[in-house]
Amino acid sequence: MTSQEIRQKFLDYFKSKDHLIVPSAPIVLKDDPTLMFSNSGMTQFKDFFLGYKTPTAPRIADTQKCLRVSGKHNDLDDVGRDTYHHTMFEMLGNWSFGDYFKKDAIAFAWELLTEVFGVPKENLYVTIFEGDASENLERDQDAYDFWKSHISEDRIINGNKKDNFWEMGESGPCGPCSEIHIDLRTPEEKAKISGLDLVNNDHPQVVEVWNLVFMEFNRKADKSLEKLPQQHVDTGMGFERLCMALQGKSSNYDTDVFTPLIAKVEELSGKKYTGILEDEKDIAIRVVVDHIRAVSFAIADGQLPSNGGAGYVIRRILRRAISYSYRFLGMKEPFLFELVAVLKDQMGPFFPELEKQGNLVTEVIKSEEDSFLKTIENGLIRVEKLIEQTIADGSKVLPSEEVFELYDTYGFPDDLTRIIAEEKGLTIDEAGFKAEMEKQKLRSKADSAQKVYDWVTLETKPENFVGYDQIESETYITRYRKVENKDGEFYQVVLSSSPFYPEGGGQVGDKGVLENAVESFEVLETKKENGLIISLINGLPKDAGAVFYAKADATDRKNSQANHSVTHLLHEALREVLGTHVEQKGSYVGPDYLRFDFSHFNKMTEEELALVEEKVNHKIKESIALQEFRSIPIQEALDKGAMALFGEKYGDSVRMIQFGSSKELCGGTHVKNTIEIGHFKITSEGSAAAGIRRIEAISGDKSEEYFKNLENQIHELSQLLKSKDVVRSIEKLMEENASLKSEVEALKKEKAKGEIGEWKNAYEQKGNKQLLVKKTSLDAGSVKDIVFQLKKEIPTSVTIILSDADGKPMITVGVSEDLAADYQAGAIVKDLAKEIQGGGGGNPGFATAGGKNLDGLENAYQKALNL
């Protein structure tokens, strides 16, 4: 069976068992503060397990894209070094929300594996939770009894809490689980050692293939367990491992999930993949084909590589692949981007986002490769300097601070520094490097450290958002919890009736006040977590159960919604002016300004920007009324022409915002009429990433302020220039300035001519060669002209000029052509530049170097005299 057939058979089986088949959620999570990425199949269903949302169906099945590269679930460092760990992988899963439980989950799994897929029963083992006295958890006798009807009791293994009690994270839904393991060894190997002894012992051919989790509990912040209102089933089967088992392979990388990608890497690199675990070349190929999947899906789902958050994780994965291919495959030019087409052919039919976003993914990866390969080349120069200095200091160990700076500041891989050092007979200070890494982690933890306590529930009233219709409301606190961070002690509250818009869809969360006649609290931010709208306040009310009035900041809300509405008009205008390839790729909507990222491969011209601005302002002046479809079926919205953004997870019912011909799915707050936006002004346009342009703009009050400031500046200029015709006055000043510059340049040349005559007579005879070492305050351009003239006129000469022009040290070296075989200007200047803490270069006949240490010119002068 091909991997495509295996995936389809799984989905078809559960469809026959009355499961709703749903698409994979985006791999990148945008509205979950506890996770950056979907790290398991159940991530998109958290709200169902917690009871915050009603499941769309009692039974669901899907294949979910997952990424395990951060936090508790981090497989990154294992990838490539074994046959079965991956960063991105598919999790086949079936779920029951308060419907069937252990008996049916076990029966379904057994039937699918043994009867549909035909896995030999004698190759399977199962584990059950053995219990844990410290938590008063008993052995999972029910699971044991149900398994007995399918498999012999000697193949049912007790498992400890680590292996057989599944937890989503530090807190949240959890419960005992039952794993299914498969023994893929040869009959001869099985005869030597029983599979019983190898289950959960990291054997590459005795692997867990499916985990059946029985959700019964909720782990609270204080680590205690409470029963969930309903019992649920959450199963996850590793697609890649299943393919390995069904295709009779001993490695995931030998299945057709990876072989087309490996074949393309072989073609591009000229290296042959042999599948040897310890072979660095084979490790590199495994790293490349694994990582390209993770990066491609993340970008397709809207997460571009960047220097922070989820974007930094994606950049790190990609750079790991580039580093491995550079070192072990000899790939010095971009090539990973060429794998995207292969991946698209393989997985595009099941994951349409890869098909739709293929060009963008390709361009972003190519740009990142270009950038990081330059980083490596520049880093190699820095490493060589560090090695030279270490040897000069009489040491054999590269100092940890410098190695860490190369890694942390310049992005140069530490393992590459290691390899280069070893080639020169040196090592790095490993203990010191680890200590530096630990310091960085501690700093990072300290910045983000936050202790969150358990919710205290006060009311069982419905919790509603009323902010689309009003910015003030009478309300109750339904639940609250304490939060401690580096800034102090705060409280998060959930309100029965909240006017505060929670951060999402690019729009910032509302601030405001929560008050009554007795006390008042500042609302510092509003966010959404697991379906709850949570506002952060600066204290705990004396009577938390009292009636309160919630008031969102009216000015900020007015400006934010103007900026949000105008992003819709901007999106439409960009598509009209640039083409329908334009799609939103990110946004920020706040009260002060808006930022809009969109797919486009060229810098916008001034004419294009002006036309976009004109189109948006025309729509504003048309006074178009908002048409809000607050809850309509998603297909109906799409049929009406609404734009859905890739990387967003939409439910069965959606909210559609329409301003005339502009129709988008959106959960943000908006003006009632475009005339409320006032005026739209683009303040900047630039590159956000490869294939992504970024516009920053203002509207409403801020647009008025912008033009008022311009008016004031023009008035001040008019006063300074003593003229109402500011433009003509500035043109006249520029003409005068250009004339004065010409005079200054002429004077410099005259001065330089005077210097040349003096310098010609200052050469010292050194054997049969001439040496000039001279200090000056002439500028760099003048020095260059003189040196070029002198090295032509003075045969067998080396000319060294040390300048302190503008308070900056500069060294210039010229070597006459007849000495080119004996002296290199670049080598001389590089040696002298050490004295001024600088660097530079050039060609054998001419070179320059700048530096930081002006006082070092004297040492460089003395050193040059001894050349």
Automatic annotation (TrEMBL):
Q: Does the keyword Ion transport apply?
A: no
What residue ranges are annotated as transmembrane? none
List, alphabetically, the Pfam families matched.
DHHA1 (PF02272), tRNA-synt_2c (PF01411), tRNA_SAD (PF07973)
- GO BP, sorted A to Z: alanyl-tRNA aminoacylation
Question: Which SMART domains does this chain map to?
Answer: tRNA_SAD
Any idea which positions bind Zn(2+)?
Answer: 564, 568, 666, 670
**CDD domains xref list:** AlaRS_core (cd00673)
**Where would I find the Alanyl-transfer RNA synthetases family profile domain in this sequence?**
1-709
- Where is the protein found, in the record's own terms? Cytoplasm
> What GO terms fall under cellular component here?
cytoplasm
Show the domain comment. Consists of three domains; the N-terminal catalytic domain, the editing domain and the C-terminal C-Ala domain. The editing domain removes incorrectly charged amino acids, while the C-Ala domain, along with tRNA(Ala), serves as a bridge to cooperatively bring together the editing and aminoacylation centers thus stimulating deacylation of misacylated tRNAs.
Q: What is this protein called?
A: Alanine--tRNA ligase
Organism, by scientific name, is Chryseobacterium antibioticum
Origin organism lineage: Bacteria, Pseudomonadati, Bacteroidota, Flavobacteriia, Flavobacteriales
Q: Which gene encodes it?
A: alaS
